[in-house]
Amino acid sequence: MNFYQQSPEDVLSSLNTTDKGLTSEEVKKKQEEHGYNELEQKDRQSLFSLFIDSFKDPMVIVLLIVAIIQIVLGETIESIIILTVLIINSILSVVQTRKAEDSLASLRDMAAPSATVVRNNSTQSVPSKEIVVGDIVILEAGNNIPADGRLLEAESLQVEEGALTGESVPSDKEATILQEETALADRKNMVYSGTLVTYGRARYVVTGIGKETEMGKVAELIQNVSAKQTPLQRKLESFSKKLGFVILGLSVLIFAIQAFRIFSGNGPQDLQIELLNAFMFAIAVAVAAIPEALQSIVTIVLSVGTNKMAKKHAIIRKLPAVETLGSTGVICTDKTGTLTQNKMTVVEAYLPKHEQELYSSEPAAWSIGENRLNQIAVLANDSSLNEEGEASGDPTEVALINYSNKIGLPFSDLRNKFPRIEELPFDSSRKLMSTLHEIDGEKLLLTKGGPDVLFKRCSKILINGEVVEMTDEYSKILYEKNEEYSNQAYRVLAFAYKPLSKETLDLEDENDLIFVGLLAMIDPPREEVAQAIKEAAEAGIRTVMITGDHKTTARAIALNLNLFKEDDIALTGQELDALSEEELMEKLEHISVYARVTPENKIRIVQAWQNKDQITAMTGDGVNDAPALKQADIGIAMGSGTDVSKDASAMILTDDNFVSIVSAVAVGRNVFSNIKKAIAYLFSGNLGAVVAIIAALLMNWINPFTALQLLFINLVNDSIPAIALGMEKEEPHIMKQNPRDPNEGIFTGQTLQSVILRGFTIGIAVIISQALGIYYFGSPEISVAMAFTTLILSRTLQVFPARSNTQTSFQAGFFSNKYVVGAFAVCMTLYGITMLPVVRPIFNIPNAFGLTEWSIAAGLALATTIILELKKLVFPSKLAD
Hints:
It holds the Pfam family Cation_ATPase_C. By secondary structure, the chain is an alpha+beta fold.
């Protein structure tokens, strides 16, 4: 049996303690057996280990082999360049990984530093880490609760448990026995580590410490949930493995063919030189095929996306999250503060036989009942607003004074005019609060509280300014109205008063009251959220609400936002637990609302969608959300949330607004589209170089490029245009398409066609250029210079057709991406530097290479761009890939 289902006496007995606390000897023995009240953390991977792991990528291994061989052969410049790029990429990877491991540190920071306990039959303060099961802890307002426990006594106790339960208002606590199994948020006789006492006093017995607390269970979930790779990371990793093996195989094959030719046709005096040349030829293929700057360019393009998202209130903590957002198919979102305003608001005022919409009449024309209703709401109220409009106090009470201000009756004026004489503070057991005031020369007791309780205390009712007896008919109307509000998920308070001649109060005074009216309030949906959910649906994204609130409230909000459809289902956490995995997978796509959920429930929901191959985003702000935030493909924390949730997330919303998620998805889709454009741009150029090298091999020509030329193009010349493509604006209809299939490869559809077409077009132009150098100009050295010029200019000009698979540069707006124009200008300048007399020898460009040769090479390069742009006009595509 659970502790909350047992009496205090039974709990104390089962824990071998008494209400007078433990002795020092008992405490020491328990600490030796069970350890201290603190969270454990697994050892983290060392920085050196992370650094080594970053070199396990197949393409990186190929480049390392190439660099080592070049060092042996004395080609130090090329090897230094390659090693520098690899080390920079590794450092970036280590930094990003280390940033993602801070969740448990934040959990530790939430622990209370000390606590007041009863030991050796006396009260004393001890460090929270020294608390053991069986300790008796004393709580007062403002205390952080140091460990889980069962209440023994509670006086008007309220605890802020939002970090664990998702509740937007403090929970009322009492020491009563709960008969049935209940969700954590409804266990009114239990308190939990890491939560805060906001009101009242209590004593409780500790039932769980350290990893056995609810907070400890969350910590264990965080540690056991593995970080998810993004779709792009998975595809790049898979592609890298395949490309690495293909490049190694191709290089070995080319060397074998060259070696066969050498041994078949040359004398032994040329053998060593020829084999070395053949080996360098094979290395050139590897250098040409591998886009050395790929990882750096992807990182830079993602960084550009983070800047765009920051302007839309989305702060990215982990760069790959930018791309993941673009492929998101399901958004599991919290309700409070994300879909709603996180601000309780009065939406309807009700008086018997008179119902009005909010703020529908002028205060000057109000009836006596309406004025009395507002007086009670403001005066029997402990909340306040400062001059800056910042609220303090219970959110429900804050809603009441905001209501008064809104209708033109400043709450401060009422309180100054009718000061409080005496009070009966709110108590969770009686669910009432009463204050005494002198109004218009008469002392009045003003009472507010839960409708069901207050109805029974009223013997009279105020109707149209006249006090009459409370009849069964009136009572029935009140109960029906309260039920109507409850079905709409409103939080309802009832208000009553009575004349009182004395100046001291006791609980008996809260009887024979005169009923005045009801105020219904709710945390209303954000006005802009319904449209954002609609836009997400048009983009093929499913929105699911997961909240710690009650099912009725959650379902009402979901209906209001058109998130809940006719055939949809709303489940509580307990109802979810009752479903088998098969039943859940069968019903999953019809469940739009989950209420009263646990951290384990949230992980299960996220995993269920992931098992359906859906890239899943999860929002949250509390400690209880952290495991699911880490499990999700992209965790989205609220800016107002806990540090734990932020550390476990990949993205933080500074405005806590669902609309910002949808805006960020649009940016993410555009970022992924631009990354594909950059990757296609890089591989198209590399394919062109490989095609030219293989053609030269088959024709038994000189190697058309040196390794340094290829490194210059790959690392310097191509990097700038690739980054510029990362600045490209959104393609038309990007948010009218379904999310891409997470199992889809990088090179599919139009992207693959584009890479092959551009690559072979460039390759053919280079082959023609080298052939002219050999056969027309009669110089192998000139042929190399012409091949290099054709390749570098073709790849530079290719940035213009690479901007879109569906539009030409002029259709997209030639100057709409000024970065592309700037990148072209920079690349042409860099190429011009290689033509300088002092630089030519470094790049194997002979002085005989003049204007005629350059014009032919440049003409061939320009022809490739014209062909690629004309293709879009002759064979147009409907949508971007």
